[in-house]
Model the fold of this input.
Amino acid sequence: MIYHDITDEQLIAIITEAVQKELKSKENQVPVGISVRHIHLTRSDVDWLFGRNYQLTPKKALSQPGQFACEECLDIIGPKGTLTKVRVLGPERNATQVELSQTDCRTIGVNAPVRSSGDVEGTPGVILKGPRAKIEIRQGVIIADRHIHMTPADAERFGFENGDRVSVRVDGEKPGVIGNVLIRVSDKAALDMHLDTDDGNAFLLKQGQKLTVLGKENKGAIG
Done:
């Protein structure tokens, strides 16, 4: 852009406005984490699959404080197929949960609903195969809801509350808008947006890529 016949004051004002706009855009950005298929286990299911009093082995810390990928993997067996060497995440949970993409579900023949983590009532089950045994879980398979983890301070800065739904803009080679993203607020959280591999592939996203939060879609706290 070329400016003619403007004063120094006007040029400074134009530059200042452009810089403020850029800074404002960055304030509304969140890093994205592409979450591949994984498994959360209860203490009792760890015992059955790996042996009594077995301790999961941390392999790599995850974006959320205290959570980690484990060295241990399991096979997930559905009515039509098997997913092999699926990573277990720690620490142990109160309920065993399997998080898959829609593509994964089709591969093994499971009709899983989109749910928030921990909301497994009425969801389908699968067979989990470990080194010591197989177990059948009667429920627990979900397609994880799109969500953004925030601390209370992050939520205040963005102007959101726990349970809000927002839209997020993706820039890059395959730009677009991702809707119905759940805000999850916790003092134990770190700012991070979680999508599954289907969403990641659809927008050609990379781990850690910055996305821009556009604003609320509706309001209401989760149960």
Observations:
- The helical segments are 8-27, 43-50, 102-108, 152-158, 197-202.
